[in-house]
Structure formats: structure tokens, C-alpha cells
Amino acid sequence: MICDATGVPLAVTLTGGNRNDITQLLPLLAAIPPIRGKRGRPRQRPREVYADRGYDHDCYRRQVWAKGIKPVIARRGTEHGSGLGTKRWVVEQTIALLHWFGRLRIRWEIRDDIHEAFLKLACSLICWRRLRTAFR
Asked: 107 near 16, Cβ under 8 Å?
């Protein structure tokens, strides 16, 4: 899952439980829809990507830089307390919101397309709830 700074999920993918997370970094970046806002051509990608130590691979850092995105990724082998946790907790919060939906907390569906549909429905509901509270 990749989300914005407020915890709204922008793109999600579903993989097997034994897959490495880093394999989904570039497909998730490619799946982000255009960001609307100011007049002119909408941004197609974020300015920065925050990630934890699990995404610390130099080849992927170079590929993210090549897309024009600054990777802010904690280095493996360094001390904790880099300050990135103050930014990354937003993703953990969004994952916790997904766990409010019982069918996503523990996967009971055998077919992955059904589970992915419930995952995308839950992300849509999270977005709708954020919009509803923003316009009150």
C-alpha cells in the first residue's frame, strides 16, 4: 500500500505472503493516479517517498530517483531514531484502519481476486470517510 501524508490510500496491490515488499515499490509508484490541485498539468508522481529499512536497496533507490522521486529510506545498519518514524506512522495507521474490516484482518477467501476486491472496497471507504469529515 502507498498512501499520502494524511493516510488516504492511493494505490494497493495484493501479493503472496512470502513475497518481499520491495518487489512492489515500482508497481505501486506507477499505479498512483494523477494528483490534482493547482492549475496546469497535474502531477503524475509524488515528490518524496518515505519507507522503512526493508526498502533499502541501492538499485531500487536509483530507479526511484530516475522517476524524479526523492527516496527517503532509512539505511540498514544505522541506529534507530532517524526521525523517519514521524512520517512513516501514517502508513501504519492506514493499515490499522484496514484491520477494522474483519475480512481483511484474517484472509479467509481462497480466491485472491475476491480478497483484492474487498481490499479496494475498504480503501474506498477509508477515502470516503476522510472526505466526509473534511467537508463538514
From this structure: no
Residue of 83, 71, 19 lying closest to 45 (CA atoms) = 71
Measured CA distances, 52 to 9, 70, 85, 105 (Å) = 17, 14, 8, 22
> Which grid coordinates are listed for 25?
515499490
How much is the pTM?
Answer: 0.77
Backbone dihedral angles phi then psi of residue 29, each to the nearest 5 degrees: -65, -35
Q: Distances from the Cα of 45 to the Cαs of 11, 42, 48, 58, 84, in angstroms?
A: 12, 9, 9, 20, 20
Does residue 88 contact residue 4 with C-beta atoms inside 8 Å? no
Other C-beta atoms closer than 10 Å to the C-beta of 4 total 14
User: What cell was used for 89?
Assistant: 506512522
Q: How confident is the model at residue 76 (pLDDT cuts 50, 70, 90)?
A: confident
